[in-house]
Design goal:
Layout: E1 51-59, E2 69-78, E3 81-89, H1 98-104, H2 108-111, H3 117-127, E4 132-135, H4 138-152, E5 161-163, H5 164-171, H6 182-189, H7 199-217, H8 225-232, H9 237-242, E6 254-259, E7 265-271, H10 274-280, H11 289-297, E8 300-305, H12 309-323, E9 338-342, E10 350-353, E11 363-367, H13 370-383, H14 403-406, H15 420-436, H16 440-455, H17 459-486, E12 491-496, E13 502-508, E14 511-518, H18 525-534, H19 550-560, E15 566-570, H20 585-593, H21 596-599
Parallel strand pairs: 1-4, 4-5
Antiparallel strand pairs: 1-2, 2-3, 6-7, 6-8, 9-10, 9-11, 12-13, 12-15, 13-14
Organism: Micromonospora saelicesensis
Domain GIY-YIG: 251-329
Protein name: DNA polymerase-3 subunit epsilon
Length: 604
Amino acid sequence: MVTDGTAATGVSDRGASVPPMAQAEYVQESLAGLDPAVGGVDPALPLYATTFVVVDLETTGGAPDGGGITEIGAVKVRGGEQLGVLATLVNPGQPIPPFITVLTGITQAMLVPAPPIEQVLPSFLEFIDDAVLVAHNAPYDVGFLKAACAKHGYRWPNPRVLDTAALARRVLTRDEVPNRKLGTLAAYFRTATQPTHRALDDAKATVDVLHGLIGRLGGHRVDTIGDAIEFARAVTPTQRRKRHLAEGLPKVPGVYIFRAADDRPLYVGTSVDIATRVRSYFTAGEKRARISEMLGAAERVEAVECAHSLEAEVRELRLIAAHAPPYNRRSKYPERMVWLKLTDGPYPRLSIVRDLSPTDTAYLGPFTSRRAAELAAAGFHDAVPLRQCTHRLSLRTVTPACALAELGRCPAPCEHKITPEEYDDSAAAPFRTATASDPQPVVDALLARIDVLSRDQRYEEAAVVRSRLAAVLRATVRMQRLAALTGIVELAAARPAARGGWELALVRHGRLAGAGVSPPGAHPRPTLTAIRATAETVSGGHGPVPAATAEESERILSWLERPETRLVEMSSGWSSPASGAARFRDLLAKAEGGASHQLSTERS
């Protein structure tokens, strides 16, 4: 398709392939760059094999509002060869300012017979299909085109965009060119066509500038269109120097490990595509200061291929826990988890401990911090008359009571004003019931307290109790979910793989013991049998997380609870208490959202 003249001619109507959509307000955004949502071109495509459409617009000036375009010039090239040209004047439907006429030579009379932009867009969108869009100061030209599509109901194809002005700023030094204007670059590269502030001439000049800049990219180890787009953006010298670390990595699910010169792990991450994810660390989109520091110390990247995303996530957690990489912020030090347990003795109290013993029967957790455990403990103290002192009480010796007894907040077991049996029924039993099955009495007591405080307009105190209620519910819901899974000796599950076949997982006591993928078209049973034969032996234990970290078991739960996941085999039933904490999830969401004035009406 080649057109030239004052109007688009010989161009087929693309109304069928670019259907108009409901008109949407245009909001100018940054260029798509390497956004995975952009269309068409694979970022790994070599520059010599990439199809470029170099475009230039002339406009009436001002901001892009869906109109104002007076001329479009576009040249399609690949491998240095011109494939097509599109050039047309456009009737903007508004007067042309005199200074624009002086600058471009385009007069009002020239535009009267020209087609409006809504008639030109179908041809232009077809012309740029499956190509990389190139422009000098691309945000300006792309902004006008996107605004026009939005105004007239056409879907913008969101192509990858390369800005020759930005690329020139990265490639050429001030000693070579004083500025990066198109006229200056055209003179430097001695383009066959000089820019004239007419769309087609400027587009042809930009083609030669593009080829000249591409010729300079080889020395920067930029060979693909994705590399060129990122190189044009503001990457740091460290990212540019270390980008070779991303070479040769597999495009498969797995874990990647940035290692220092002494082989020490610096950072561990996971992805469904290791190569693409690691490459993103060397792009302008990566702006985290700690990652920049990490890249400066990194000397190599190690890839651990996994069967599927669940195995990758679990391996990532285990590696972070084992090595505590300095630049990972999350999932480190799982041994720092704490528990809230009911002590032994005739008058038990709540105690925060690091580990559970086999004799512990009433507990809650694990909590990620001591502060979270203290908040849940305060919730129970608000709801039930558990003693808060740390004395070891005796059934024979009386101990002086504290201020809480005088305030009516404690039944004073230290003074033997309550028998051990009565204390157990009123204080200890509600904690055991709440953690193991039904937290309803505790929830009712906290809601009633919130209701009283709210009626008395003591809203700050009500908010404190609300946060304690949220802590209690969050912990009980979490522990009961974990216990339901970890109580199963063995569970096999499958999920459809993206490329056919089945992703398989073998879980034992809440720990991922084996993983694999059955090939497309084959029955998954032989693969599952092989996984079971080589799976990790996992012994059960005490507590809701006997064989793995809570975070690992929760990752497995999330994978199992997806609608597409199928349970294949289980050694026993998977169930949770019918009157358990899970039924308070809506209340928990409200408590976490701060809706304390609504909580008093929630009872189930």
